[in-house]
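Suppose a colleague, Dr. K., hands you the sequence of a protein chain of 131 amino acids and asks what its three-dimensional shape might be. Before reaching for any lab equipment, you can write down a predicted structure in token form. Begin with the sequence itself:
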Amino acid sequence: MIAEISKQAVKHNRVIQVLIQIHVAQEDTKAGMSPEAYKLWLQTFVPEDYPGVEVVGLMTLASFTDDEVQIRSEFELMQALLEATKASEVFPKGQIQVLSMGMSGDYPMAIDCGATHIRVGSSIFGSRKQG
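The predicted structure, expressed as tokens, is then:
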């Protein structure tokens, strides 16, 4: 996917900022790399191979649950992955700044755990209609 984004960006003389989605939720309906796969990806990723892409951070969707302990542990894992990414020598210092996590129901906890971007659509627009 990142190769195609880079290819299209270069074709249109652009650089696209992206977030890498990490799957930390305890449910299969969420997408992204597992934390383990992400750690391996980070060891082999060469930014120069993707000139149309600038990785600027990480994102996740936490488990859809009322279990605040579960959600906090997922957010804390993401914070740790972000800090490990910043500490790696893969990206230029200061490039990795974004941690997108938290939605209308859990954004205060997400912010407490280091989120820089949150999604609060249902707080603004109301719940989505099913079907």
